[in-house]
Amino acid sequence: MRRSRILLKQFDFPLPPLILGLILGPMAESNLRRSLALSAGDYGIFVGSPIAVILLVCTVLALVGPVIMKKRKQAKNA
User: Fold this and answer.
1) I want to staple 39 with a disulfide (CB 3.0 to 4.6 A). Which of 22, 45, 53, 74 is the partner?
2) Rg, C-alpha atoms of the chain
């Protein structure tokens, strides 16, 4: 337990998103399995409608955006 706290502080991880991930992760996984079972294993169900594509693009931008901004900032300062 102590080692995990040290790692969280060292890498500057915020605690609330971690707790949300631990709570919502199993629910998301079970719903993913359910949707794949309904679609007979076809991942195309996740990009079948325009709103799904928009939400997926927003998710990717939210995950990749901070990394790109950090690298840009580092390159600008160097």
Assistant:
1) 45
2) 18
- In terms of pTM, does the model score above 0.85? no
* Residue 35 and residue 56 in one domain: no
22-66-60 Cα angle (round to 5): 65
SS3 content of the chain, % helix, strand, coil (to 5): 85, 0, 15
Whether 2 and 32 map to the same domain: the answer is yes
**Under 8 Å between Cβ of 52 and 58:** no
Q: What is the pLDDT of residues 22-33, one digit of tens each?
A: 999 999 999 999
Q: What domain range includes position 58?
A: 48-78
Quote the Cα angle for 70-8-64, to 5°. 30
